[in-house]
Amino acid sequence: MTPVRPEFLPDPELSREEMETLQYDVADAARWTDDFDFDPRDVSLESAASLTGDRPLVAGVDQAFLDDRAVSVVVLMRGGDVVERAHAVTDLSIPYVPGLLSFREGGPIVAAFEELSADPDLVVFDGSGRIHYRQAGLATHLGVVFDVPSVGVAKNLLCGRPREDAEGRPEGWRTDILADDTVENAESGDRIGHAYQSRQYDSSPIINPLYVSPGHRVSVPTATDLVSRLCGGYKLPEPTRRADAYADETKAEYA
DNA sequence: GCGACAG
DNA sequence: ATCTTGTCGC
User: Fold this and answer.
1) Cα gap A11→A251, rounded to integer Å
2) What pLDDT score was predicted for residue A1?
3) β-strands A69-78, A81-91: how paired?
4) Residue A184: inside a domain, yes or no?
5) Any strand C atom closer than 7 Å to A251 CB
6) Cβ-count burial of A163 within 10 angstroms (0-12 exposed, 13-18 middle, 19+ buried)?
7) Residues 164-223 of A with CB under 7 A from strand C
8) A225: containing domain
């Protein structure tokens, strides 16, 4: 249902050099300023009954794998309610290569979106956005392909360096992720994302932070604000958790 | 040559 | 990402 910009589709048949060239183009097409219709304050997990206005549709995207096939899923949420789920099972053509993830998983994700009947106002991806060697991670690449506001939420840092050590910080704490010399199209020191402590217990099991970065049409601070509004008692944002569970149950049916 | 490296 | 049992704690 969601229209696609064909010139940006991540074609896994491209050579590595062509992939990197496309990523530069994607980064040039990406907008890292707030450009969306909804009010960020309307993004929440509250139940529909207690709310007045129209809540934005937020999509969570995740994948699971079977041999050489990907199970890609999209879960649409409005407030705390799941309003639609869609999935696609696709053959994988290339292996995982750090920095080129969107060329492996992009096609399968596009296939899952084609099964969706509604268009999301915001998409939360499992992986990096601007925190990427060419500032064109999965969240940025697919955000540009769909021209939809998007954020990337990663459990591990791909590149860049935290302004401060994030180890064992309290819940709600955040620090900038600054571009280092591995980010080819940024000035060293540019702010490209946040390390965000979405969950922390009082004692020992120290939880690692999330690495949040803009995908498309969202700024660095807003990306983290939105993610914070989508985290309800768990480390990962709720749309991501729902997508995670749906991917697991779908995978079980195809195994 | 060595280390780093989303999912 | 994936392969996997039990275990500690609220």
Assistant:
1) 24
2) 64
3) antiparallel
4) no
5) yes
6) middle
7) none
8) 6-159+211-254
In a domain, A123, yes or no: yes
Say which CATH number the domain at A62 has: 3.30.2170.10
What rounded mean pLDDT belongs to chain A?
Answer: 95
- What nucleotides of chain C have any atom within 7 angstroms of a protein Cβ? 1-2
Q: Is the CB of A229 under 7 A from strand C?
A: no
Max CA distance (Å), chain A = 52
A196 in any annotated domain: no
The answer to whether position A32 is within a domain reads yes
Annotated binding site of A: 62, 126
The pLDDT confidence band at residue A213, using thresholds 50, 70 and 90, is very high
Which nucleotide comes closest to A64 if you measure CA to C1'? Answer: C1
Amino acid in position A61:
V
Q: Rounded to the nearest 5°, which phi and psi values hold at A211?
A: -110, 105
Domains contained in chain A, number: 1
Q: Given a cut of 90, is residue A52 above it in pLDDT?
A: no
Q: A216, A24, A243: which is closest to A251 by C-alpha?
A: A243
Query: Strand A191-196 to strand A174-178: parallel, antiparallel, or no bridges (unpaired)?
Result: antiparallel
Nearest-nucleotide field for A66 (CA, C1'): C2
Which residue lies nearest B5, CA-to-C1' measured?
A98
Contact criterion met (CB below 8 Å) for A133 and A99: yes
Give CA–CA dist A77/A239, Å, rounded: 7
